[in-house]
Amino acid sequence: MPYVNIKLTGGKEAPTPQQKAELIRGVTELLQRVLNKNPQTTMVIIDEVDTDNWGIGGESVTERRKQK
Amino acid sequence: MPYVNIKLTGGKEAPTPQQKAELIRGVTELLQRVLNKNPQTTMVIIDEVDTDNWGIGGESVTERRKQK
Amino acid sequence: MPYVNIKLTGGKEAPTPQQKAELIRGVTELLQRVLNKNPQTTMVIIDEVDTDNWGIGGESVTERRKQK
Amino acid sequence: MPYVNIKLTGGKEAPTPQQKAELIRGVTELLQRVLNKNPQTTMVIIDEVDTDNWGIGGESVTERRKQK
Amino acid sequence: MPYVNIKLTGGKEAPTPQQKAELIRGVTELLQRVLNKNPQTTMVIIDEVDTDNWGIGGESVTERRKQK
Amino acid sequence: MPYVNIKLTGGKEAPTPQQKAELIRGVTELLQRVLNKNPQTTMVIIDEVDTDNWGIGGESVTERRKQK
C-alpha cells in the first residue's frame, strides 16, 4: 500500500515512457524486497518539473544549466 | 483551514471543469459536516497526472489500460 | 485509483478515529459518485499538523487561536 | 537540506521566470537567515496550478474570478 | 536532483532504521541507473503514516487489518 | 492564495516556535512582495522530518551527521 512520488526535471530532460516504466517497476520491487509490501497496491506518481520551476543553491536549474 | 490535494488521471480521462467544481464543493462540504471546518478557508488542489506517470502494481496505468 | 491527501490541524484539534473513518469513506464515495472512480483503489492519507507548524495570514494558527 | 514546495495559480496568472527566480532566491535566503540552513542543498519546487483545479470556499478560483 | 517521497504505514508496521537506509540507497541507485541522476543531490523523504490515517477501499487500514 | 510546504529536519534540529513563526511570516511577505499575493489567504505548512527518514547522497542524514 505504499505511495511514492518522484519529482524530476521535465521538458528536454524528461524521461521516456520506457524509463518511467522502469522507475515504476524498480521502486515497486524495492518496496517488496525490503519491506515485503504488496506490489498490487503500491502506487507511484512521477512529476516532471520545468527547470524554471526547480531551484537549488538559491537559483533555478535553468540558470545552473547555462553556467556550465 | 484544511488543505486537500486530489490526484487523478488526466489527459483523455481528465474531469471536466464541472466535475472538478463538484469535487471541490463536495470535499469542502464533507470537512464542514464531519469536522465543522470553515469552508471559507478550505483549500483544494486537483492534480491531473498523465497515465504514463502513474504506476500501480509495478506498471504504468498506460500499460494497464492496454491489457484490458 | 485516485490519491487524496487531507491536511488538518492535530493535537487538541485532531479528529477522532471515527471522524477520520468518516472522511475516508466520504471522499472515496465522492470520487465514485462524481467520476466513477473505483473505491477499491482510492487511497486517502490524512496528515495532522501541529498548530505551531501551520501558518495563515502570515502567522501561526497557535498565535491566531490566542487572539480570539 | 530543506525542501520547499510553492503552489500558486498558473496560466494567465503564472509568474515570469524572473519572478520565479526571485522566489527561489528569497526562500533560500530566508531559510539560511532564520535557521542557518545551507543554501547549496536547499531545494525549491514551484507548481503552477490551473484556476479550474484550485478551490477555496467550496468553489474554483475560476468561478471566484468571474464574480469579481 | 530528483526528489522522492515515500509514504508507508508506521507504528507497529514502521520500518527499522536499517530498512529505511536500504530504501534510501535503493531508490537513489535506481534513479542513477535508469536516468543517470547524480546521487549526491538526490533527496528522499520517508513519511510514516498511522494506520488510522490511511484509507483504501473507503475504510482505514486499521479497520482492514481487523477484518483479516 | 498560495500554498507553501517547508520540510526540514526535526528532533534535536527542530526549529523553535519563534523560528517557525519567522519562517511563516517571511515566506508570506516574500509572496506578497514578489507576486502581490494576498497574505490573508497564504497558507504555510512546516513538516519536521526525522533524520532517519531523510536521505541525501544515498544515505540517511543520521548517517551523514555521524561521519562529520
Automatic annotation (TrEMBL), chains A, B, C, D, E, F:
Class of enzymatic activity (EC top level): isomerase
Active-site annotation: P2 (proton acceptor)
UniProt keyword list: Isomerase
SUPFAM superfamilies: Tautomerase/MIF
Chain segments annotated as coiled-coil in the UniProt record: none
Domain of life: Bacteria
Domain 4-oxalocrotonate tautomerase-like: 2-64
Single GO MF descriptor: isomerase activity
InterPro entries (alphabetical): 4-OT, 4-OT-like_dom, Tautomerase/MIF_sf
EC number: 5.3.2.-
Gene3D superfamilies: Macrophage Migration Inhibitory Factor
Protein family: Belongs to the 4-oxalocrotonate tautomerase family.
Full protein name: Tautomerase
Organism of derivation: Mesocricetibacter intestinalis
